[in-house]
Amino acid sequence: MALAASNTTRLWTLVAKEFWRKTRRRLRAGPVYRWRYSGRTPERVLIAPPDLRLADPQIALEIYYGRYPLSGHLVETGGKSPFQINVPNHGWQKTLHGFRWLRHMRAAGTELAAANARALVSDWIAMHGNNIAGIAWEPGTTAKRVIAWLQHSSVVLQGAEFPFYRAFLKSLAVQIRYLRSMAREMPDGKDRLRARIALAFAALSLPAPASALRGATRNLAEELNRQILADGGHISRNPMSVLEILADLLPLRQTYANQAETPPQALIGAIDRMLPALRFFRHQDGSLARFNGMGATIHDRIATILRHDDTAGAPLLHAPHSGYERLSMGGVTVIADTGLPPPVDVSNAAHAGCLAFELSSGRQHYIVNAGIDTYGAAEFRPLARATAAHSTATINDTSSARFSHSLRVNDLLGSPLIGGPQNVQCKRIDQKGVQGFIARHDGYVPRFGFLHERELKLSSNGDVLAGRDRFQRPGNAAIRNNGRDFITVRFHVHPDISLLQDEHDRLVLTADQADSWVFTSGEVVPEVEESIYFAGLGGPRRSRQIVLAFKASDMSEVHWQLTRTSIAGYPENN
């Protein structure tokens, strides 16, 4: 009860802070405050920072013909400016106003693409430049737009006449001043960090006094030190956040060098930690493990970032600050969530997946978590975040963490995680020829009085993954048959995997030109049920799951094993 009261108090404190933050934002967008965003217009752009995000000239052509494939949705404007039409999809609108799609115009490299980019920027300035409100001026979206306008200023300004040149620089200056006033009060998380990155880009790319660069560098360093953990993970515990932040930090480091300025040590240190962390979360096929908001992976994007990683050797196996473990032998990779939930402030995408794991062999995934449908319907997100969507155990079909379902809260904060494990213990048990760990969480103690302990061992050069799931009362009290001790251990199977029975009635996981794995469990007969894999590139896909169901009063622990029976000859993980 005390824990629930504490979570409720913390949640409503966040609601109050967000309400006050939005009130101040409205005030700062009003006529009384707006004069502070006026000032000197920069004379020119000194340097256009690089952009590491993938670009496709074909998308530039689609945009020219009025088709905007943004945020997983295609919108046809019918000859109108995209800033004139009302599109109900919030993600599409944020992507439109973020202007990252300018990179496709740059990749096209034609006068037509440059003219179209200039026309669209001109439309935005005319329709939204003087109206500081709505999605267009959300601070996180403004930060993306500032970075994009600077990175692709050479394309936007190519062949521009003087009036547009001045209007572009004047609007950019207003957005930078607005972002500077809002950055300190932005909600915690990567948007606030991106705002600091955008202001550092601006201080380097536009004529500015030395004091402006010093202030931007100092604020950036403070935010990096606070948000990037000692093992390179992000405070949100979302692997995608590591990728997204690196895509901004690497060009920023290069911009400091191009301007003969010394980057802050916090920037250098963050990049040096985050590149190995990105490799930690990466399966051998290049995709990232599906934990805490991670969905489908665009492999080329990760490869582009990792070209800047000169770290030698295999990825680290232990990420204690981020709360993850990795086992890697014989071309087999196991990645497991062994950490506490992230802070409530940054838990809007967090999952109730404590002690869940994923298994890949070579370039094929076998055991996965459901992940999220990045651009899909919001109503499916709670299903993807639930414990049952992860390869771990549930008690009485209940998640190990709770999410806010209050409409008032969700309107302000999204759907934060407001309850979950308070204590997660993890110990590596590596030995010669064996990698493993034992971890335990107390997420089910307040409601059901159970601790969940999981042991995983990868051995025999990656051929055997042995697991044990144990359920006990705190203090080893006796487990009674009270109807609240029903255990379900799930193993979600990747939709590309065929699930068959061999002549011994054992379950076999197999795929064309890939390894085969046999699932066995001594005490409980496994069952096969339907499942959904949300993280497909084309959206959700039907899949299956192996289920071990039993009562803790009948048995307090279950042993299971995945054994590789044929080896496709993949190289060791890198």
Automatic annotation (TrEMBL):
Main location, first listed in the record: periplasm
Keyword Thylakoid among record annotations: no
Annotated Gene Ontology cellular component terms: periplasmic space
Recorded GO MF terms: lyase activity
UniProt entry keywords in alphabetical sequence: Lyase, Periplasm, Signal
Boundaries of every Heparinase II/III-like C-terminal domain copy: 313-561
Cellular localization per UniProt: Periplasm
Matching Pfam families: Hepar_II_III_C (PF07940)
InterPro entries: Chondroitin_lyas, Hepar_II_III_C
PANTHER family: HEPARIN-SULFATE LYASE
Name of protein: Heparinase
Naturally occurring in which organism (per UniProt): Mesorhizobium intechi
